[in-house]
Amino acid sequence: MKKEIFKNKEELSLYFGDLLVKLANEKDVLNIALSGGSTPQTIFDVLAKEYKDKIDWNKINFYWGDERIVPPTDAESNYRMTKEHLFDKLPIKDENIFRVKGELSPEEANADYINIIKENIPSKNEVPVFDLMILGMGDDGHTASIFPHEMQLWDSENICEVATHPISGQKRVTLTGGVINNSEQIIFLVTGSNKAEKVKEIFEKSGDHKTYPAFRVDSAKTLWLMDEEAISLLK
Ligand code: 6PG
């Protein structure tokens, strides 16, 4: 499992930004699926501040690996978080943003996003292929919005599924494992001591690692960018 370790989120963000520059220079179009939650916020802030003129942002199409079924103006919305920390600070056009319509019902949002992906993302082995899949990991080992109690969603034949947060019951739309693992490249962004136990179990293949959706991500394609807190329990 490839990993790079950083003292803090700022150093991690600069490393990620340099990777994005390299990727954007190699391709005419880059289809990226973003993660949500809190970890990306610092990374997006650094990208907006330090990489505004280093990347041709018109080349990048922005999707999400998962989204909460809330309006795009809701504090819980991954789209809103990304808009505030990234899109509003860069010359990114609306036509390069492909969001899950969280204002719809879960089923309608899911069907709509599946159509958006089918219409815009090329396929490889008859499965949509993202150039870059950015993932986070919850402290329960979930990734995207596939939680341990719904592991069956990982193996769904559908491009996306409606998921349910195990504690809040919040409905979400998530990419499924076949799409996630079909990506050209996958980057995990994992920071904080609250992730250390699951990082240990996944990297050491110990404990309940097989029950964590994050463990199902294709390690051959995956680079884990982590801070020292997240790896603090690794031998
Ligand atoms: C979401 C995510 C989710 C997230 C992890 C980690 O919508 O919440 O996409 O998979 O990446 O829960 O979240 P934090 O970065 O907030 O720890």
Structure commentary:
It is a single chain. This protein is about 30% helix and about 20% strand. It has 6 helices and 11 strands. The protein has a 6-stranded parallel β-sheet, with helices on one face. The protein has a 3-stranded antiparallel β-sheet with strand order 4-9-8. A two-stranded antiparallel ribbon has the order 5-6. The site of 6-phosphogluconic acid has 15 residues, from loops.
Gap between N and C termini? 14 Å
* Count of runs of 4 or more consecutive helical residues: 6
Strand content: 15-25%
What's the overall average pLDDT, rounded? 98
Structural class: alpha/beta
Q: What are the segments in which pLDDT stays under 50 over at least 5 consecutive residues?
A: none
Bound molecules: 6-phosphogluconic acid
What is the H/E string? EHEHEEHHEEEEEHEHE
**What would you call the shape?**
globular
Number of E-state strands: 11
- How helical, in percent, are the residues? 25-40%
- Largest beta sheet: strand ordering: 1-11-10-7-2-3
State the major sheet: 6 strands, parallel
Structural Rg? 17 Å
Which tags fit this structure?
6 helices, 235 residues, six-stranded parallel sheet, 20% strand, three-stranded antiparallel sheet, alpha/beta, globular, binds 6-phosphogluconic acid
Short description:
With 235 residues, this protein is an alpha/beta fold.
Topology:
Layout: E1 2-6, H1 9-26, E2 30-34, H2 39-50, E3 60-64, E4 66-68, H3 78-85, H4 106-120, E5 123-124, E6 127-128, E7 132-135, E8 160-164, E9 171-175, H5 177-180, E10 185-190, H6 196-203, E11 222-227
Parallel strand pairs: 1-11, 2-3, 2-7, 7-10, 10-11
Antiparallel strand pairs: 4-9, 5-6, 8-9
Helix pairs in contact: 1-2
The structure holds 6-phosphogluconic acid (6PG).
6-phosphogluconic acid is lined by residues 35-39, 65-66, 78, 136-138, 142-145.
